[in-house]
């Protein structure tokens, strides 16, 4: 009867261990979702309670051998009660629950990650529900269906969701925790499978002792594979994708993970405070349309930055090469303006605000530009614009509208990405694009007609309050263009996206730029300030010979007519326009700046010294590879020292134990030295074999002599240990106290080590075999039937 109760306790313990491990592993994977919200601790603490309920209810149901569907249903009900209580304050989904879910969906569509967590804004309910679903699915596969390998699929899904939605890589330690948890789930499942093979003939062994070497080797392989997955991206130079937030290895193609600035534009325009962000001092009389980034790719969802090729040599440290696709005549007649820029500490951006087109720049830090877009991206994870000060030279091209009207067809100078359209583009977009420009003869005239239609003729209205929330994809674009009660109202993002897409329909390469519209003049001479509410988006269209040309279709309620480039208005063929409007007299055209031009900032020795000593933002020391190498060395050291450390702890524990522990320590020492241990012999027969292996402690011969005469003290100590083991095993109620054989174990071990070669001793110290072949020691009179982890005992 006691054996049956012990078996039931063991079965329950195995079920609880696997269930708790599955819940903990899923919770560890959910740590990768921390970047979705500013207050991640809320939903993570809630998932602790959800995981505990699911694990306990599932373990109890499986222990009582309930049907799988019943167990899963009970877990779903219990987990849903906790989730509803967290979301809505009641254990059932009432009105407050559904209101919180609706508000969470709205917040997820309106704000970029990390979403703020306030009284009215939060995505915590969505994250909690997602965690509930993940925990239920992992528990179902790993514990109820006993398919732990399949449980890796939902874990991988949970871990991979943030990759395409959050900026930067994922934390390496989250991956390590998840991987180790998954390995432990595999170990527990296979341990139970092995434990069902039958009962051991050795009463001192339980079923869990089988295949220790195999399981230990598998665990070591898993740990090494996990460590390799974390460390490899740091040191292998050919990796271009960052799985973890540790940075790429040296070399590679210098691709940089970038974010979509449109999301931040929506957030700051809709609810952000109007704070000063950028201050400029310039001789440019109209410094509007300060650009932050360029978005090339349009998909079914919205415009995004697309793929970028950012060479390591394209740094913000001097003059830039001539723009592609711009004629020599236009370049030669360019007017240059100098800018001194200061960024507020509150403005943290991975993109560097610059005036386009730009001729030269001098900014500290590893900022790099794309040759095609000329926007500057931070190549280091911790590099932002907060508190920066830098100088640049902007160019203003001078060309006539007739030059744009007769431009040839674009050749290979533009990428296919700026002309591509999604397959599901609504037919309304194409119909309107061709209808609005039906009377235009050239692409330039069609572009002017599109801008005129959005600003005046099409009946559009600018409004932040009435505009639909969320991204502007194909469906939202169609709704924006419809002439009904809900259509033709929006803010700059809708107008810029619509004109750029319709331009592509007309075979005009286009892209969307995000930046600041116009600054406010300050009391200081030639000094202006851009604020958060100056954030703006506009399209740029490509005309060969002129390059990328700025248009702005946003109505005059947002963009006054004097802020429009003259060449974009009707009747421009009678004017001599410039790429940016000028309400005041402009300076005489000056030649394109060179490295010797005083207006062009060039690197100075002082800046190089600052970078060298690490005090500036652009340190030349490759910290990421150095830190990665140090992490690799620490990891290697930990792996090398781990077996020795574990073996030392085992030795101390066994030496302080009873006779069986002392006997097990002699067995482990023998195995570590590469010698066999007679498992099937009695202690007295094993003593004879061990006596022949004793050496003289203190001698360091390459081929040491061994035998009982070499260590008389060890012979006596071994005899006392054997006598104590025999007394404990074969005498009723007689056993020596724990720790009484400590000195004898130390003496015998020293003699066994002295009887082995120096190579065997080194192997025993650094790579002890016994670490992977541990057995559970059962001292005398301890009930060996107390833990039979699910074994099946045959009865004859």
How would you explain this protein's 3D organization?
The protein has a 7-stranded antiparallel sheet with strand order 5-9-12-6-1-17-16, with no helix packed on it. A 5-stranded antiparallel sheet has the order 8-2-15-18-19. Strands 7-11-10 form a 3-stranded antiparallel sheet, with no helix packed on it. With 796 residues, it is α+β, with helices and mostly antiparallel strands. It is built from 22 helices and 19 strands.
Quick rundown:
By secondary structure, the protein is of the alpha+beta class. It contains 22 helices and 19 strands.
How would you summarize the topology of this molecule?
Elements: H1 2-30, H2 40-63, H3 68-88, H4 95-110, H5 124-144, H6 148-160, H7 172-195, H8 212-235, H9 261-270, E1 276-282, E2 290-295, E3 297-298, E4 303-304, E5 317-319, H10 328-332, E6 335-343, E7 351-352, E8 354-355, E9 358-362, E10 367-369, E11 376-378, E12 389-396, H11 401-405, H12 427-436, H13 443-457, E13 461-462, H14 474-481, E14 489-490, H15 492-505, E15 510-516, E16 520-521, E17 527-531, E18 535-543, E19 547-550, H16 605-612, H17 623-655, H18 659-672, H19 683-691, H20 712-730, H21 742-754, H22 758-766
Parallel strand pairs: 13-14
Antiparallel strand pairs: 1-6, 1-17, 2-8, 2-15, 3-4, 5-9, 6-12, 7-11, 9-12, 10-11, 15-18, 16-17, 18-19
Helix pairs in contact: 1-2, 1-5, 1-6, 1-7, 2-3, 2-5, 3-5, 5-6, 6-7, 7-8, 8-17, 12-15, 13-15, 17-18, 18-20, 18-21, 19-20, 20-21
């Amino acid at each position: 009867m006691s054996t049956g109760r012990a078996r039931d306790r063991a079965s329950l313990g195995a079920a609880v261990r696997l269930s708790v491990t599955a819940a903990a592993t899923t919770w560890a994977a959910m740590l990768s979702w921390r970047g979705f919200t500013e207050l991640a601790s809320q939903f993570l603490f809630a998932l602790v309670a959800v995981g505990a309920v699911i694990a306990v209810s599932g373990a109890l149901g499986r222990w009582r051998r309930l049907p799988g569907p019943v167990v899963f249903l009970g877990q779903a009900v219990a987990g849903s009660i906790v989730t509803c209580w967290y979301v809505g304050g009641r254990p059932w989904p009432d009105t407050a629950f559904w209101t919180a879910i609706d508000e969470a969906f709205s917040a997820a569509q309106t704000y970029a990650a990390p979403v703020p967590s306030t009284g009215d804004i939060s995505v915590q309910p969505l994250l909690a529900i997602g965690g509930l679903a993940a925990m239920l699915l992992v528990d179902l596969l790993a514990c109820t269906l006993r398919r732990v390998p399949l449980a890796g699929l939902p874990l991988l899904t949970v871990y991979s969701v943030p990759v395409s939605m959050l900026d930067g890589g994922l934390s390496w330690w989250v991956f390590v925790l998840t991987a180790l948890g998954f390995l432990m789930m595999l170990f527990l499942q296979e341990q139970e499978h092995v434990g069902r093979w039958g009962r051991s003939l050795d009463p001192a062994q339980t079923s869990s002792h089988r295949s220790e070497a195999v399981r230990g080797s598998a665990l070591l392989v898993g740990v090494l594979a996990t460590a390799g997955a974390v460390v490899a991206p740091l040191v292998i130079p050919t990796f271009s994708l960052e799985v973890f937030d540790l940075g790429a290895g040296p070399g590679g193609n210098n691709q940089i993970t970038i974010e979509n600035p449109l999301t931040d534009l929506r957030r700051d325009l809709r609810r952000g405070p109007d704070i000063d962000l950028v201050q400029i001092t310039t001789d440019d009389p109209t410094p509007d349309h300060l650009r932050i980034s360029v978005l090339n790719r349009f998909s079914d969802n919205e415009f995004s930055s697309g793929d970028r090729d950012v060479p390591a040599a394209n740094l913000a440290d001097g003059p830039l090469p001539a723009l592609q696709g711009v004629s020599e005549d236009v370049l030669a007649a360019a007017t240059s303006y100098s800018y001194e820029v200061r960024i507020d500490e509150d403005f943290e951006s991975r993109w560097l605000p610059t005036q386009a087109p730009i001729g030269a720049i001098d900014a500290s830090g590893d900022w790099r530009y794309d040759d095609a877009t000329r926007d500057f991206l931070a190549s280091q994870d911790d590099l932002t614009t907060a508190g920066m000060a830098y100088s640049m030279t902007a160019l203003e091209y001078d060309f006539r509208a007739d030059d744009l009207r007769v431009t040839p067809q674009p050749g290979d100078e533009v990428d296919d990405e700026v002309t591509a359209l999604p397959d599901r583009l609504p037919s309304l977009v194409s119909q309107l694009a061709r209808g609005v420009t039906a009377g235009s003869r050239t692409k330039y005239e069609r572009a002017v007609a599109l801008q005129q239609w959005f600003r005046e003729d099409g009946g559009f209205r600018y409004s932040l309050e009435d505009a639909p929330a969320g991204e502007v994809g194909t469906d939202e674009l169609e709704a924006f263009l419809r002439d009904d009660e809900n259509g033709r109202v929006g803010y700059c993002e809708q107008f810029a996206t619509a004109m750029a897409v319709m331009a592509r329909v007309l075979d005009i390469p286009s892209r969307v730029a995000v930046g600041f519209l116009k600054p406010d003049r300050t009391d200081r001479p030639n000094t202006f300030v851009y604020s958060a509410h100056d954030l703006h988006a506009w399209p740029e269209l490509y005309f060969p010979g002129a390059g990328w040309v700025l248009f702005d279709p946003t109505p005059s309620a947002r963009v006054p007519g004097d802020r429009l480039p003259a060449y974009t208005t009707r009747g421009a063929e009678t004017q001599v326009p410039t790429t940016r409007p000028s309400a005041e007299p402009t300076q005489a055209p000056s030649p394109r700046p060179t490295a010797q031009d005083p207006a062009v900032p060039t690197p100075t020795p002082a800046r190089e010294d600052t970078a060298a000593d690490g005090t500036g933002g652009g340190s030349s020391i490759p910290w990421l590879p150095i830190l990665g190498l140090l992490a690799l060395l620490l990891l290697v050291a930990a792996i090398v020292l781990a077996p020795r450390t574990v073996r030392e702890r085992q030795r101390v524990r066994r030496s302080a134990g009873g006779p069986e522990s002392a006997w097990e320590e002699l067995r482990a020492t023998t195995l570590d030295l590469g010698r066999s241990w007679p498992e099937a012999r009695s202690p007295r027969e094993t003593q004879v074999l061990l006596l022949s292996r004793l050496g003289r402690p203190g001698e360091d011969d390459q081929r040491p002599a061994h035998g009982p005469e070499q260590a008389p003290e060890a012979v006596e100590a071994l005899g006392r240990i054997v006598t104590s083991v025999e007394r404990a095993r074969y005498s009723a109620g007689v056993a020596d106290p724990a720790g009484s054989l400590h000195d004898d174990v130390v003496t015998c071990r020293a003699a066994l080590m002295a009887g082995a070669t120096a190579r065997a001793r080194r192997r025993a110290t650094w790579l002890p075999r016994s670490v992977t072949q541990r057995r559970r020691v059962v001292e005398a009179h301890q009930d060996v039937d107390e833990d039979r982890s699910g074994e099946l005992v045959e009865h004859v």
